[in-house]
Amino acid sequence: MAETATRRSPMAHVHARFAAATRSCGGALRLAELPYLTQVNVRLDPKGPAADAVRLELGLPLPLEPNTATRGGGLAALWLGPDEWLVVGPPTARDTLASRLSEAIGDEHASVVDVSAQRTTLLVAGRLATDLLAHGCSLDLHPRSFGAGRCAQTTLARAQVVLVPRDETKPGFWVLVRSSFAGYLAEWLLDAASEYVGEHSAPRT
Which Pfam families match (predicted)? Predict the structure, then answer.
């Protein structure tokens, strides 16, 4: 009798420690994994008919300005290069998103690849999220420089990540990291978060 493999996220072993760190920081910092998000890599000519087909299928345009992102309908399109994007959606889209895009593009010259298994996504949220990430990232993460609608391929604690600010009403970031580096980055975040144990939710003066 065939056995059914149990799906396990790259950070399943630290979920309880993330929750404990979040409680210890008094609501000022939240760490969590957002496992199994759908991630589809798209490469095409942004001025060609394939780009129009993708826009119509997604219901949002592919961003053309470097290091920007567009959102809509539960999806996010992240700029990775002049002809490359990462489309991120909920886990429920994994079985359909890539095939929908491929069908919409048809015979036009383009590449659509489901890369959901390559990365997992961390949520680093709360009013201290920027302070925490600044310990290991050289980008200026202030909302004036790196707010909603932005994204960046960068390094966090020497691990390559894609960093995406959340919207204005939800302070914090998505951190997309290769599955092979997920455990390392989780340990780094937990260690860095220990500095904020006992913090209260009220803003600093």
Answer: SoxG (PF04268)
Considering only CA atoms, which of 94, 90, 96 is closest in space to residue 115?
Answer: 94
Question: Phi/psi at 4 (nearest 5 deg)?
Answer: -90, 125
Report the C-alpha gap between 91 and 104 in whole angstroms: 21
Q: Which two tokens stand for residue 62?
A: 């592919």
Condensed to tens digits (0 to 9), the pLDDT of residues 144-197 reads 999 999 999 999 999 999 999 997 677 899 999 999 999 999 999 999 999 998
Residue 181 is part of a domain; what is its CATH number? 3.30.1360.120
Measure the CA–CA gap between 89 and 99, rounded to whole angstroms.
Answer: 14
Residue that the structure tokens 């491929």 belong to: 102
Q: pLDDT-based confidence at 200, cuts 50/70/90?
A: low
Last residue of a domain, one of 114, 142, 167: 114
* CATH number for position 71: 3.30.70.1520
